[in-house]
Write a structure and sequence with these properties.
Blueprint (H helix, E strand, L loop, with lengths): L2 H9 L18 E2 L5 E2 L1 H5 L5 E5 L12 H14 L3 E5 L5 H11 L5 E2 L15 E6 L2 E8 L4 H8 L12 H9 L6 E5 L7 H10 L2 E5 L5 H4 L2 E5 L4 H7 L8 E3 L2 E4 L2 E4 L4 E8 L2 E10 L14 E6 L4 E7 L16 E2 L30 E6 L2 E6 L4 E8 L5 E7 L2 E7 L5 E7 L5 E9 L2 E11 L1 E9 L8 E2 L7 E9 L6 E9 L2 E10 L2 E2 L3 E2 L14 E8 L5 E7 L6 E6 L5 E2 L13 E8 L4 E7 L12 E7 L4 E2 L3 E2 L8 E9 L5 E8 L8 E8 L2 E2 L3 E2 L6 E8 L5 E7 L6 E7 L8
Length: 738
């Protein structure tokens, strides 16, 4: 997004939409994330208000931090007023939108179709759309600190602002409210920096004052206390207030832990005890260096040594009561033994594994379809399958079913064996498969300890290992994992992104003969336009013909959304075309990397933003030239006259030299549905894509070839809670091949 466009939106706190690009009467039947129909026009024409919060297709930094705030403040308040409330994302693929839902804990529907709904908005920046009795009331309503004005506009009888999110979100409320609704507070008697006074005039979001000059009106605003306050003045200021930490005997106390005030740096955010609808932020450094990144936390206590800065205690509060946050042992972390920090004697409780729950047997049926043998797996809420062909020719498929992880094997002799990988009372999703040393590795995301971390279990055909934590034990969610196997030496690798407020940082680790390597950060392409801003997700891994581990991924900046990759751990290069200006970079994302044993290939989604104007979204294909050390220009392999929307491609190769790609596609028209399209390349020419999934809505394909070069393709199919998994053993004759 251009900087002038961002600035324009930031300065526009409320825009009454006198003319909309689409009227409520023109809106066709819409769909939520899982294809459930929603008669949106009925909501928009209702006497009750409707609020829609879009989030950006580029997943910009702002879109990653206010998901808690918008659900709590705009959608919850609107629902309490009897209105219809929705999130909206029209261009990201289903699996990526699902990570937003999991990360923020969203409960309201997410509108994902049709693309023409973009005419209500026409911008990727997260603003609030609102409607009443057929009129669009807002279209550029900025998300921060505007609950009262939106409530008055929509006729809410009562609306409260709920503090939410982390330190990053709290500072946005302080610095971007644009009506002096915050106070930047300095120690009594200290000089306020001249640059702060200039910012006060320019930003119009806060006033700068000394602690002893605060008025009763000031106390009701967002408060940001920054500086080396004396223990006495800060302790007196917050004495007997409802906050999740205390100042006692020259110590800071939080939970069972205590820190010397004068030798500890800290920052903390919580509801303002003088007005719990606002936030209180305290940042005291005592001359010490703040560890970074730390903006995704609610609190951080740290101490600087000559060699390093130690994070003594950090994490998040329990926010089940939005106005009264509490310390949570399970959300508290330390870079040292926490018992050493206890005030007195204490024991750190261990989190027991979640109890199992009763679930129905795994259902598997199979029949002949127009394109081969079709297996149907699962019963309800089945999503995001992954597929693997092991060296013996067996096919393995894993999927989420209603928050559990299941596994099925289709053996070479036709036997079908199923296994429940995770079916306790925690929540799991996004499984990924790999094979090494004759064992199947099942990686998946699970929230058994408050956060979605990456776990793995091994299965040798008889025994299932215990769950192994693969990602770090840290206070953030892990998203969009990927895994790959090296058939030459039995090694495997796994990658993921860590979601830290407005940053997503990609990591990977290797596993060799059950030995875990250290976790390493995937080196990103230089952001160019924004210093210290890193946002990369959706990694794909592959061991190349030379045995080297390669990765590709999405990255926001230097492109609005681009595909980058390289051999790990070397610096990457762009795969989508680069340019001098950010807005001139080629837009693309959600790549899949694979090899034919000789060359490396990548497929990805092209620009989807203009589909609301009828321009088809392409699927692109690129080859890595080892001699030139460069990726070829992306070749379009989808057909614009066949499908308008095209997402989540993945590919494989068979021994005779054929390259195969499958993707989710949706034709134009109100009665269309998502399907799985297959295309192949022989002698450098691509075939016309063929719909292989039938007349049932199907998305998120995976494709593998077994050792006999049979092709297997999986997807999830159906709508809403009735979704199951489809697995096709392709009959090549049905697409014109022997």
């Amino acid at each position: 997004m251009k900087k002038w466009a961002v600035l324009s939106i930031l300065l526009t706190s409320l825009l009454f939409c006198t003319q909309s690009g689409i009227s409520p009467g023109e809106i066709p039947l819409t769909e939520d994330l899982w294809g459930n129909p929603i008669r949106l026009a009925e909501y928009l024409n209702s006497k009750s208000p409707t609020v829609i919060v879009p989030f950006s297709t580029s997943n910009c930094g702002y879109c990653l931090i206010d998901g808690y705030y918008t659900e709590l403040n705009y959608l919850t308040n609107n629902t309490r007023a009897g209105g219809g409330s929705f999130h909206m994302d029209l261009f990201n693929p289903q699996a990526d939108v699902y990570t937003f839902q999991k990360h923020f804990g969203w409960t309201f529907p997410i509108l994902t179709y049709p693309p023409s709904l973009h005419r209500l908005h026409r911008d990727g920046f997260p603003t609030v759309l609102s409607f009443r009795q057929g009129d669009q009331k807002t279209c550029l309503f900025h998300n921060y600190d505007r609950v009262d004005s939106l409530g008055r506009l929509l006729g809410w009888k009562q609306a409260r602002q709920y503090p939410s999110g982390s330190y990053q979100m709290a500072t946005r409320l302080i610095f971007e409210n644009f009506h002096f609704d915050a106070v930047w507070v300095y120690p009594a008697g200290s000089q306020i920096p001249p640059r702060r006074l200039e910012q006060q005039k320019k930003w119009k979001s806060f006033s700068a004052k000394n602690l002893d000059r605060l008025t009763e009106a000031d106390l009701k605003k967002h408060l940001f206390l920054q500086g080396d306050f004396s223990f006495r003045e800060i302790a007196d200021f917050l004495r007997n207030q409802d906050i999740p930490f205390r100042f006692v005997n020259h110590q800071i106390r939080i939970g069972s832990y205590a820190f010397d005030y004068d030798s500890t740096g800290f920052h903390v955010v919580c509801p303002n005890p003088f007005n719990p609808s606002k936030v209180l932020v305290i940042q005291v450094q005592h001359g010490q260096q703040i560890p970074k990144p730390s903006h995704y936390l609610d609190y951080l206590f740290y101490r600087t040594t000559p060699d390093s800065t130690i994070r003594l205690l950090y994490g998040h509060f329990d926010k089940s009561d939005p106005f009264h946050w509490k310390f949570s042992e399970g959300r508290a972390f330390s870079e040292m033994n926490k018992t050493q920090l206890c005030a007195g004697k204490c024991e750190i409780p261990q989190t027991p594994p979640p109890p199992p729950r009763e679930t129905a047997p795994i259902r598997v049926t199979h029949r002949r379809s127009p394109h081969g043998e079709l297996y149907t797996l699962g019963s309800k809420n089945c999503r995001l399958p992954d597929l693997l062909a092991d060296p013996s020719g067996n096919i393995w498929i894993s999927w989420e079913e209603d928050g559990d992880i299941h596994l099925a094997e289709i053996a070479t002799d036709g036997r079908i064996v199923t296994r429940k990988i995770e079916n306790d009372r925690s929540d799991s999703y996004f499984p990924r498969l790999a094979v090494a040393d004759g064992k199947i590795w099942i990686f998946y995301l699970n929230n058994r300890e408050h956060y979605y971390w990456l776990y793995a279990r091994q299965f040798d055909g008889l025994r299932l290992s215990e769950a192994l934590l693969v990602s770090p034990r840290e206070p953030y969610d892990v998203v969009t994992p990927a895994a790959a196997s090296d058939p030459a030496n039995g090694d495997l690798a796994v990658a993921w992104s860590a979601w830290m407020a407005n940053l997503r940082l990609p990591f990977y680790r290797r596993i060799s003969h059950n030995i875990f390597s250290k976790i390493k950060e995937i080196p990103l392409y230089s952001a160019i336009y924004e210093k210290n801003y890193r946002n990369a997700w959706w990694p794909s891994l592959c061991y190349g013909p030379d045995g080297a581990l390669r990765a590709v991924w999405n990255q926001h900046y230097p492109a609005i959304c681009g595909v980058f990759g390289g051999t790990l751990p070397n610096p990457p290069q762009p795969i989508t075309r680069s340019a001098k200006k950010m807005e001139d970079w080629e837009i693309g994302g959600y790549p899949s990397l694979f090899t034919d044993g000789k060359k490396n290939y990548v497929v990805w989604e092209g620009d989807a933003w203009n589909t609301w104007q009828g321009k088809s979204q392409p699927i692109k294909f690129s080859v890595y030239d080892a001699a030139q050390r460069h990726w070829s220009i992306g070749e379009v392999i989808s057909l614009p006259e066949q499908t308008l929307l095209n997402q989540t491609p993945t590919g494989t190769a068979t021994g005779e030299g054929t390259i195969w790609v499958v993707y989710s596609g949706r034709p134009r028209g109100n009665n269309s549905h998502w399907g799985i399209y297959l295309t192949f390349r022989q002698e450098k020419r691509w075939s016309a894509p063929v719909l292989i999934s039938g007349e049932t809505s199907a998305r998120h394909p995976r494709i593998v070839a077994d050792r006999q070069n049979n092709l297997w393709i999986s997807w999830h199919q159906g709508v809403g809670t009735a979704m199951t998994i489809g697995l096709l053993k392709l009959d090549r004759q049905t697409i014109g091949l022997n």
